Amino acid sequence: MLLKPGEEHKVTAATYLVVTSLVMLLVFDLEIAALALLFLAFGDPLAGLVGKRFGRLRWDRWFKKGLASTSGKSAEGALAFLVGSLSIATLLWTKDVYLTLWPAAVAAAVEFLPIPLEDNATVPIASGLAMWLLWVS
User: How far is CA 94 from its chain centroid?
Assistant: First the structure.
């Protein structure tokens, strides 16, 4: 099965990723766009694996349901997302790695929060904006 449940008759997560990748490459410097997309590429699957296996602190238990689809997201998954993002930044980015801490934290928070938009779009854009604000301005 190539589609997630519920994607049979709507725009897929992969489509959002392709469009967002193009937007990121057009709007931001290559360094920012690449790192923001890598945050998603490494953090999102890691968050899913850790969240499903070890996730106990679920968003739905903390706040009332109905805000948005959380799909059972957990704090453990968000922490795994942060660790994955910081790991890839540490391995690939030779500048001050501390400057990637806040953008990685923004990426993990956006992935965890019940934002009704597709996280394949929101995570790279939010972390890219965070990097741009820290590095350029």
Answer: 22
